[in-house]
C-alpha cells in the first residue's frame, strides 16, 4: 500500500490538537502514534522525564527510554522482548522526543518521516498549550487566548484541506499551491515561497511557487535550512524570514520560506506553523514520488518515452520472440547535432522542452507498433519490427528530415539536426545490448562523416571502433613518452617577404603506427579528452622555442592552434598565461588560432576566456575562414585580430575570377574590421602574386616555406631577412 | 466431548424459549458433568437474563466464574442461532481463572478498562490472556480497550467482544457471576500451561476513492470531504431515499476503513439522520482520518473466517486446538445472511479441524496481539486454547 503513512498525520494532528492540557496532548500523541505504526509501546521524554508511557504495563523502563532518546535504536521491554525503537524530536533545540518501539520490524523511511512529523506536531501543540496556560496564568487579555485558539483551529482546517487534496491525489501543483497559500494566509500576509532543489549534481534551487508580493527569498537561507535540517528564523529588514526544510522520503529536497512583515514576538509559534506546512509539502511530494517512482523506473520524465532499461527489455523480448530469422528487427540509434549548444545558450528548461518536441517528432516517424526511447542526454533510439535494412534506412532518413525542420522553443526558432545509425538483427540469439551498441557505432561513423547522415552498421565499424580504442592508448603513451614533436611554418608578410611569425604544427611519429596525421589523431584526442594535455604541451614547447628565437628575431610571433575542448576548459586562460610566463614570451607575441566551426558550434563557450586572454594581450585568429557557416556576427562579438583564408579558396593552380572575387571580399572585410589577413596554402608564384595584388597582408604555404623542424628554422628565418620582396623561403617548392 | 482432565473445553447451545431451560441446556452440554472453572455465556437480550443465568449456574456449580454478553446472534459448533444461547466452559488444573468487573464512567471510559485488567493481578501462568466483554453502546469502545492495554502493557494479549442487543441499539448487558449488568466491562483473566492462539481477519476490501473525515465527534460523522456525510454515503451507494430506508435494507451496515499500516481499522456505520444529514456507528471516527468504503462479497468474508481460525490454531505451537472462543462482528453476519452463515460455520469447523467453538455476533471485537491497537470491527476474532 503506497504511502499509507502520509494519510495519518492530520488524523493524528487533529487528535493531538484537541487536547486541552499537556498531559492529555502527550497521552493522545503517544497512543495514536503507537497505534498508527502498529508499535507496542510509546512514550515522551520531556525535560529529562518520562511522560505518557504506553504499553509497558506496570513497570516503565525509564533508563532505557532515556537511552533511546539519546539515539539507542533498541529498547528492551520486560516480558515483551527487544523492540526496534525510534526517537522523534519535539523541536529543534531540546532533547525532548516522542518515542515509539515495535517488536515486528524496524521502521521504514516513510514511517520515520511520519513519526518525525508527529514529534514536531506534538512539540508544536505542547508549546502552544504552554503559551496558552501562561497567558491564562498572567490573566492576559481574553482576546489573545481567543486568537491563539482560533489560529490553531484555522491551522487544523487548513491542513485538513491540504490533506484531502493529497489523499485524493490532486495534481501536485494544486496541492503545493494550497500549502503556500494556506501558510501565507495563516501567517497573516506573509510572502511564502517554496524552493525546490532540481535533480542533477549541482541541485540548483528554483522557486517552485510563491504566494505574496515580496521578492523571492535569498537562496542562502533556504540552503541553510536544508543543510541544518531545521527551521531557521532570521531578522530581515523590518521583518523576519523563516525557512523550514522540505524532505522527500527523508532526503532534503528544498525549503519553505516565509517572509513576515514587522512585529516580533510570535516567531516561535510562526516557526512551528511553517514547519507544519513544510511537513505537508514533504508528505505531498513523497506521496507523488511513490506514484511517479514506478513510472520513472521505466520512463524518461522529460519525454515520457521508455528509458534505456525499458527499451532494452522490450528489445530483448522482441528478439527472443522472433520465430524465424526472416523478419529482421532494426534498431535506430539517433543522436542530436548541436543540442548541447541549445542547452548551454538557452538553458536547461529550453533544452528539456526541445527534447520533448524531438520525442514527439520521432514518434511521428515510426509506426504505432514501433518503440521509441530516450537513452539519455541527446540520444534516442527506435525499435522497428519486421524492418529490412532499406526500410529502416528510410525511417532514418525520415527522422533526419523531421529533426532538421526548425523547432519553436522559448519563443525562438531552433535549428538542430540528427545523425542516425542503423543496426539490423538477422541472427537469432543476438543480444539486445549488442544490437544497440552496433547502431551506436554506425551513428558514430555517420556523425564523423558530417551531421545529418544515416548509416547502416557494417562489421568494419566494429574494427574501427577497436582501432580508436587502441589509438587512444597509443596517444596516452605518446604524450607520456614524448613521441610528439613540433614543426614550424612561417607566416610571411607578403609586402617584404619577411617572416612575421611561425605556426606551431604537431607531428606524431608512432613507433608502432609510423607517421600519424593530426587529421586522424586530433579528433580522437578530443573525443577522449586528451587534447587539453596535448594542447598545453604544444603551447609550452612552442612558447619556449619562439622565446629562444626571438633573441635573434625580436619581432617573431607564435601562432598556436587551439581546440574547442581546450577553450571550454575552466583553467584555459590560466594555462596559456602560465606557459607564456614560464617561457618568458610576451603575450602580445602569441596568436591563438581557432577554427570557424568551433566558434560557431560553441558560440558562448570560452568567450569569457578569450576576452580575458585578449585583455592580457594575446591575439586571436580565425582559422579556415570561410568554410564555416559564414555568420559574421562573431567577428563583431569576439576579440578577433586575424583571419586565415582557407586553402580551399586558393587551391586552384590558377585562380579564377570567382576565386579572386571571394578572396577580395574577405580581404576587404578584414580591412574594414581592421584585421590581419593570412592566405593559407600558397603553392605557386602565380597564387602569390595574385594574393599580393589583392592586398592580402600575409601568406603561408609550400611555395613560401614548408613546415620545418626547429633546428633548421633559424637559418630559414635568417634567409628571409635578406631575401628580396619576392619572399620565397623554401626553394624546393619552386624547383 | 473432551476427556482431558488437565485442561478441558466444551460448548453447548440452546434455542429453548424458556430462559432458565435454555441456560441450563446449553451449560449442561458445555460442561458435560465436569468441574467448570469458567463458563462463557452468549445470549440474546430477548431472554430473561436473570433466569437464563440462574439456569447456567445450576449446571456450573457455585465455584465457576460466569462471564458473557448479550449478542446480535449466537454461534457455536452446531450453528448459528438468533434469540438463543451459546455457552463455552473450561476447566482442569492447567487453567487459572480470575475475574473483575467495572462500571463505565462515560467521562472516563478508560478507567473501567484499566480496572478489569486487574483480573491479571498476581497471575503467573506461562500463558495468559485477558478476555473482555464490554457494553458496545457507550460510544468510546477504543478508550475502554486502551485503558486495559495501558494497564497491562504489551506482554499479555487481549481478546473479547462488545455486547449487542440484537438490532435495537438500546441497551446491552454484560454477565458477571449471576448478574446481568449494563454499561459495564467484565474481564476474565485466563492463565494456562498450554499455548494460547489468537486470530484476527476480516475479508473486506476498499472501494476507491478514499474520503477525508472533515468533521466528526466521537462516533458521529458530520462531513466527508466537506460534504454532509449522509449525502456522500447515499450517493456512493446509488441509493435514493431516506436514511431510515437506507440503513434498514440489507445494506444496513456501512463499513468504513481507516487507513492503517497493515490494512484497515474498520468502523461500522449503522444509522443516519435525514434532518442533520449525519451518520454514526458505535465507535469513534477521528476527524482528519482518511477512510474508504469497504465491500465484501460472501467468498472473501468466508475466507476471512477461515483465515482467522487458521491463524489462531497456527499459534498453538503445533498442538491441536482444545476449543475456540469466537467473536464475530454483527456486520459480517449482515453480510452473510441468507445461507452464508451456515457456510461460515462450516468454514470455521473445517479450519479448526472440528474442535468445538462458541461465540457471538458483536458490536465490535477486541483483539491485541501485536501493536497497540485492540479494537476492531467487521472482524472475526478467534481465541484458540490448546
UniProtKB/TrEMBL annotation, chain A:
Residues of the EAL domain: 468-721
Span of domain GGDEF: 327-459
PROSITE patterns in the cross-refs: EAL, GGDEF
SUPFAM superfamilies, alphabetized: EAL domain-like (SSF141868), GAF domain-like (SSF55781), Nucleotide cyclase (SSF55073)
Top-rank taxon: Bacteria
Family annotation (InterPro entries): Biofilm_reg_signaling, EAL_dom, EAL_sf, GAF-like_dom_sf, GGDEF_dom, Nucleotide_cyclase, Rev_trsase/Diguanyl_cyclase
UniProt xrefs under NCBIfam families: GGDEF (TIGR00254)
The name this protein goes by in its record: EAL domain-containing protein
Organism: Paractinoplanes ovalisporus
TrEMBL record, chain B:
Domain FIST: 35-228
Transmembrane segments: none
Pfam family membership, one: FIST
Naturally occurring in which organism (per UniProt): Paractinoplanes ovalisporus
Alphabetical list of PANTHER family matching this protein: BLR0328 PROTEIN
Protein name: FIST C-terminal domain-containing protein
Superkingdom of the source species: Bacteria
All residue ranges annotated as the FIST C-domain domain in the record: 229-369
